[in-house]
UniProtKB/TrEMBL annotation:
Keyword Secreted: no
The protein, known as: D-3-phosphoglycerate dehydrogenase
Transmembrane segments: none
GO MF term set: NAD binding; phosphoglycerate dehydrogenase activity
Family, similarity comment: Belongs to the D-isomer specific 2-hydroxyacid dehydrogenase family.
Domain D-isomer specific 2-hydroxyacid dehydrogenase NAD-binding per the UniProt entry, residue ranges: 106-280
Lineage: Bacteria, Pseudomonadati, Pseudomonadota, Alphaproteobacteria, Sphingomonadales
């Protein structure tokens, strides 16, 4: 009988479900890391919330562990690479607390509009400062939505019910999906200048970190009120305090902070600032939902091998897995590549399989492409929820098969339709195992997609490669591999270089300064 440890406080229904499905379960909470290391070797599964930290050290002592289940969305407390190396599946419950988080954002918006915390404190202190607390109505105001995925769309629905106008910024939000939601799709700068209230509903990634920076906060309408129930780090907290102190920002409410638990913050005590201790998912209904879901998912995996909402493992049958594994690796890399190189809303993404690839089950390949593509924007996507997230963003997904003759024994092509037109990348398998890029935006180029890479589009001219090599050498950057392709002599050329470390913004700026450079980006796989 499989054995699971519930190491964080969880609704009793989780333990009940485990037992009903033939899984032995122990509920032992509040253990220190050393105490957890001493017992973790006895368990096949570990069910957690946010308190337990599943570190590499813990995993090294988890000799029998097969699955970690997070009752909630965020998995910042799990070392996923270390878990993958140990063969431990990491699952989460990405949709169990969406309504709860959206409602908390709306609650904080009302609290800001009517200054409820200060009014309550003043009244209970025996004062009757009726004239001091002059609020604003939300009716008729413009709500700026940064992030229009699952939670953001619920907030938009609630705000529209309050007769607010909603403008939304989300690179993945298609015009069709915006119309369906009843919101106006805008660029970030326009949102900042128009919104009376701003609420954030995006994951914390390299692209979204400090999305409300000092510079962007300065672009906001005077008197704006800001709510963040998503992730700490989306707002420059020091710049937010300056905006509150100056009066440019009328109010701010944060449920999340850069450092949590937030025992202290320069924002604490600032007038017109409201804070809550990461309560976005803290309702009875949400806690029950995520507890039930994580128990069902973990029990399915331990008893029957079913995989749902895994962050580091595809949803596959045992028979399909060995044959599809290299194709999924290729598909995920192609999806990641096109995701990193494409900006703006994606109306359609097409996955075209040729040759041997066309004879396989396309769903796992398509899911791998979508997971690679969407992972450039969110750290909670996996092969199970990627199609759902793509649908939420209004992306049309097409699968095309071409059986018979092909230039390659097997080929997978990923094409995206954007406002700028159609762009595609293609790859094959060498020796039926090794993924290899063979075409990039219409240019033939063969390259391995791995580690850190530098992508450069330049005018094909004598001496450019030498100048680039000299610049990289002077910057102390070691080149691992060098791949070059071009449309025609003297035309547009593409370079893909693998380097030992992540490409810095400073290096990108230096390369961009070279004569003939049109585009330069750092890539990571």
């Amino acid at each position: 009988m499989p054995k699971v440890l519930i190491s964080d406080k969880m609704d009793p229904k989780a333990a009940q479900i485990f037992r009903e499905r033939g899984v032995e379960v122990d509920e032992i909470t509040g253990k220190t890391p050393d105490e957890l290391k001493a017992i973790i070797g006895d368990y096949d599964g570990l069910a957690i919330r946010s308190s337990t930290k599943v570190t590499k050290d813990i995993l090294e002592h988890a000799t029998n562990l097969k699955v970690v289940g997070r009752a909630g969305i965020g998995v910042d407390n799990v070392d996923i690479p270390a878990a993958s190396a140990k063969g431990v599946v990491v699952m989460n419950t990405p949709f169990g607390n969406s309504i709860t988080t959206a409602e908390h954002a709306i609650a904080l918006m009302f609290a800001l509009a009517r200054d409820l915390p200060e009014a309550d404190k003043s009244t209970q202190a025996g004062k009757w400062e009726k004239n001091r607390f002059m609020g604003v109505e939300v009716t008729g105001k413009t709500l700026g939505l940064i992030g229009a995925g699952n939670i953001g769309s619920i907030v938009a629905d609630r705000a529209l019910g309050l007769r607010m106008k909603v403008v939304a910024y989300d690179p993945f939000l298609s015009p069709e999906r915006a119309v369906e939601m009843g919101v106006e799709k805008v660029e970030l700068d326009e949102l900042l200048t128009r919104a009376d209230f701003i609420t954030l509903h995006t994951p914390l990634t390299d692209q979204t970190r400090n999305i409300l920076s000092d510079e962007n906060l300065a672009k906001t309408k005077k008197g704006v009120r800001i709510v963040n129930c998503a992730r700490g780090g989306l707002i420059d907290e020091a710049a937010l305090k300056e905006g509150l102190d100056s009066g440019h920002i009328a109010g701010a409410a944060l449920d999340v902070f850069v450092q949590e638990p937030a025992k202290e913050s320069p924002l604490f005590g600032t007038p017109n600032f409201i804070s809550t201790p990461h309560l976005g998912a803290s309702t009875t209904e949400a806690q029950v939902n995520v507890a039930i879901q994580v128990a069902e998912q973990m029990a399915d995996y331990l008893v029957s091998g079913g995989v749902t909402n895994a962050l580091n493992m595809p949803s596959l049958s045992a028979e399909e897995a060995p044959r599809l594994k290299p194709y999924m690796a290729l598909a995920e890399k192609l999806g990641s590549l096109v995701g990193q190189l494409t900006t703006g809303a994606i109306a359609r993404i097409s996955i075209h399989a040729e040759g041997a690839a066309a004879e396989l089950n396309q769903k796992p390949i398509t899911s791998a492409v979508l997971a690679g593509f969407l992972r450039t924007q969110t750290d909670t996507v996996n092969m199970v929820n990627a199609p759902v997230l793509a649908k939420e963003r209004g992306m049309e997904v097409r699968e095309v098969r071409t059986r018979g003759e092909s230039d390659y024994h097997t080929l997978v092509r990923v094409s995206v339709k954007t406002e700028a037109g159609e762009r595609s990348v293609a790859g094959t398998l060498f020796g039926d195992e090794a993924p290899r890029l063979v075409e990039l935006f219409g240019i033939k180029v063969e390259a391995d997609l791995a580690g850190h890479m530098l992508y450069v589009v330049n005018e094909d001219a004598p001496g450019f490669i030498g100048r680039l090599g000299t610049l990289l050498g002077e910057a102390g950057v070691n080149i691992g591999t060098f791949h070059l392709g071009r449309r025609q002599a003297g035309g547009e050329a593409v370079l893909l270089l693998s380097v030992d470390e992540a490409v810095t913004p400073e290096l990108i700026a230096e390369v961009r300064g070279l004569a003939g450079v049109k585009t330069v980006m750092g890539l990571s796989f």
